[in-house]
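Go through this:
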Amino acid sequence: MVAANMDGSDKLPLLVLGKSKAPICFKNVKSLPVRYASIKRAWMTSSVFQEWVHKLDDTMATAAK
């Protein structure tokens, strides 16, 4: 999922959905520049979206302090 404000000056980290909890391609990767979520069918679900929005809300709340 891609998210940014209207003029593109504030971009959020990408949300990547995949089937595997630990993909082989990420084997030796310490950190990713994206958020990764594993879902059985690799589809966006309401629970994944809600979790993403809650994390975004927490990020904005700490930035405002």
Notes: The chain has one domain: 15-64.
